[in-house]
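Weekly structure sync, notes
Attendees: PL (lead), two postdocs, one rotation student
Agenda item 3: pending single-chain targets
PL asked that the sequence for the first pending target be pasted directly into the notes so everyone works from the same version. It is reproduced below exactly as submitted, 155 residues in total.
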Amino acid sequence: MMLDFNGNENWHVYHRAPGKSAFGAIMAGALTAVALTAAVSHAANAGYLKASGVPSYNSTVRFHDRQADNWAKIADQGFQELAKRFKATKATENAAFILTKIDGGVGLIKVDKDSGDTLNEILIKDKKPMYEVDEIAGFLYFGKGSTILVYDLKK
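Predicted structure, written out during the meeting:
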């Protein structure tokens, strides 16, 4: 989005990041809910046994304590996955490079900051690319395994 000095919108462009699918988000949410429920259940069992006078070194109490800790760690990882933001933009002085879905798969598009026009599309087929933009020379360097691919952005 580009605003003028009065706060009025000059242009607005949105390109969706190729993040988690709806199915993936639902599955992560379901796994997180199950893990959280199991953690609470085991913690409650361990607490009940301890309150009933069973010593904390008892094997059943230790089992429930370990299970509560393990399920809590799984739930924590689920919450972290659900809260993860997808970083899909790199900017230079005159353009922004946005990782998005384009024809043929996932790619980078170059958007002009002054007009909001799409200047270039590069198909890279990688949802988590490692890339750098050299604005002075006009090249995009993209790492793929042990190979570095170079794209000429002036074309």
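Discussion points:
- Helices lie at 22-51, 59-83.
- The chain has two helices and nine strands.
Action: rotation student to compare against the earlier draft before next sync.
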